[in-house]
Amino acid sequence: MSCRGTLCYHIAADRRWTTMAQTMNFSADEMCPDPFAERTAERHAMDVQVLGGQFRFSSDHAALLDVVAMAYGGLPSQLLPGIAPAFQIELRLSPARQVAENEPPLVQMQSGAGFLCGVMDASNYAVLFPQQRRALIVASPDMLARPYHLRYELIEFTVFTLATRALGLVPLHAACVGWHGRGALVMGASGAGKSTLALHAWMAGLEFLSEDAVFVHAQGGQALGVANYLHVTPGTLQLLGDDGFRHDVERSPVIRRRSGVEKYEVDLRGGRGHLAQGPLDVACVVFASRRYAQEGEALITAMSEQEISARLAAEQPYAASRPGWDGFVAKVKQWGAYELRRGTNPFASVDAVKRLLG
């Protein structure tokens, strides 16, 4: 077919498509040359090593990658020996929308046809393809003024889910601190003091891995986390004295949890304290308790294997439903688990944990 014939063929095909679209009452957007935005330009990219994977973030808007940098910029590498799967996450800015809520809607989870989805609303959502190690995150411009929700509920949700499924990690609601590369997983109900213990362990020179979410590679016995932020309640300030760290906390932005609790969000990448420089080898599990130790009572006591199984299942219901849970519980029984009661001085609790780590 000649060049002229080819051109005429495509013009005729375009006319047939336009006529068909009008007959079927397609909208103007659906009639555009790229109705699904498949050819959106991606002019910006960022590579990070986190939670055992090599993540590439790409976007057509640099401001979205700024939020990624808030989460993962300047962190130590988090790679497991001999394992480094590659992931690709694309971020797109959706059209502006009318904002009426004081905060975004709760994320709703859906799954099917081989993908996972977390949806706030029609303008803010994440679509994940775990088998392909890929994801798409869409956010509206107003979310850039709410970076905590965008980062925590869409970007971190995506990274955590992809890494967990690709590497077979056990996701835990826990903190983790270490000493010379050996880590203690710190669990406990909300208000039990996980964050307070992690804070004082960091102030005492222990290695900080995470204060909220920890991911364990049970086969190798390593804990991974994101050592970016520490969340401190205003009531904790009285425990900090008048040193420079208290002033750093007071200058930090305040975030509001979905529960309504407000906390200072302290960025730990400023040079003060020690961040874990890689995964920590898990040495023990510590269950923080709200109960104060009585006079003459030890702050920390060992738990039986039966207590370990029951306590883990009660405190980690999501992880208990995931593959690899039984192997993780068996590992905890080998490592040992302990109950930590509160003392009059938070640093006494840190010393007790440090002794477990040798």
Q: Topology, pairings included?
A:
Layout: H1 3-23, E1 44-50, E2 53-59, H2 62-72, E3 86-93, E4 108-112, E5 115-121, E6 124-129, E7 134-139, H3 147-167, E8 170-173, E9 175-179, E10 182-187, H4 194-203, E11 207-210, E12 213-217, E13 222-224, E14 229-232, H5 244-250, E15 254-256, E16 262-267, E17 274-275, E18 280-292, E19 300-302, H6 305-315, H7 317-320, H8 325-335, E20 337-342, H9 346-356
Parallel strand pairs: 2-3, 3-7, 10-18, 11-17, 18-20
Antiparallel strand pairs: 1-2, 4-5, 5-6, 6-7, 8-12, 9-10, 9-11, 12-13, 13-18, 14-16, 15-16, 19-20
Helix pairs in contact: 2-3, 4-9
Description:
The protein is α+β, with helices and mostly antiparallel strands. It is built from nine helices and 20 strands. Strands 8, 9, 10, 11, 12, 13, 17, 18, 19 and 20 form a ten-stranded mixed beta sheet that branches. The chain has a seven-stranded mixed beta sheet with strand order 1-2-3-7-6-5-4, covered by helices on one side. Strands 14-16-15 form a three-stranded antiparallel beta sheet. Helix 2 (62-72) crosses helix 3 and helix 4 packs across helix 9 (346-356). The relative contact order is 0.12. Mean pLDDT is 87; it is low at 1-21.
